Amino acid sequence: MTNKKDLKRENIITAAGRVFGKHGFREARMENIAEEADMGKSSLYYYFISKEELFEAVVEREAENLKNEIILATKDIIDPYKRMKKYVIARMNAFNESINLYTAVKTNYLDHLPFIEKVRSKYDKEEMKMVESILKDGVRNNRFKLVNTELATVAIVTAIKGLEYNIVIREGPYKLEQQVEQLLMFLFYGIVKRH
After folding, report:
1. Does residue 194 lie within any of the structural domains?
2. Are residues 12 and 96 located together in one domain of the fold?
3. Cα–Cα distance, 97 to 62 (Å, whole number)
4. Residue 112 sits in a domain of what CATH number?
């Protein structure tokens, strides 16, 4: 019985993701989600007591999927520079496809929802952890020379976030790899001319 209930819950989250992605949190209605999930509205409330709770489940799933996609894309890459490049590309692509997570992390109109700050904080910590791990591997393998990996992590994550809109949304995915390469060259080699 629990298995069937879990499966139904997952189907509802999938349907809700499509509805929230299409209409946004404000405009999405539980009726739309119930219809998309091919069930009655009252049945939907058996699984989720509110639209907020359902949106939280959708955002958490997208965040977990994002993390898994990034791990999968980078796990077999040994060279830390190449792994960082692959990390940034995978992150930009996956984040762009996670419309509900993007909305939760980037927009202010959802700030009134109690779980939003928790999601943002968890996402930020995960991202910092992944980037710092790559940097520490680079230092350990004598590929990177860093005095303070924590500060470098903050700088890289901030740069990535600052360029999200420009690279992914405005420029489009076709320029992503080229833009990421330029960003990493700047971050890793700086702007000082070497003799």
Report:
1. no
2. no
3. 9
4. 1.10.357.10
User: What's the domain count of the chain?
Assistant: 2
User: Quick one: 30 and 66 in the same domain?
Assistant: no
Region at 32 (left for phi over 0; alpha for psi -120 to 50; beta for the rest): alpha
Q: Which domain holds residue 15?
A: 1-49
* ∠ Cα 112 116 122 (to 5°): 155
Q: What is the pLDDT of residue 102?
A: 67
Same domain? 98 vs 167:
yes
State residue 174's pLDDT score. Answer: 59
Averaged pLDDT in 10-residue chunks for the chain of 195 residues? 83 93 87 94 92 90 88 93 90 75 64 75 90 94 90 91 68 69 81 71
Let me know: does 104 contact 110? Beta carbons within 8 Å. yes
Q: Using CA atoms, how far apart are residues 134 and 34, in angstroms rounded to an integer?
A: 43
The helix/strand/coil state of 142 is coil
Residue-wise DSSP of 138-188? HHHTTS---S-HHHHHHHHHHHHHHHHIIIIIIS-GGGHHHHHHHHHHHHH
Structure tokens at 84: 């960082």
Per the structure block, which two tokens stand in for 159? 């740069």
In terms of pTM, does the model score above 0.85?
Answer: no
Tokens found for residue 125: 């910590």
71 located within any domain: yes
Residue 54 falls inside a structural domain: no
One domain, residues 92 and 163: yes
CA distance 176 to 184: 12
What 8-state DSSP symbol labels residue 169?
I
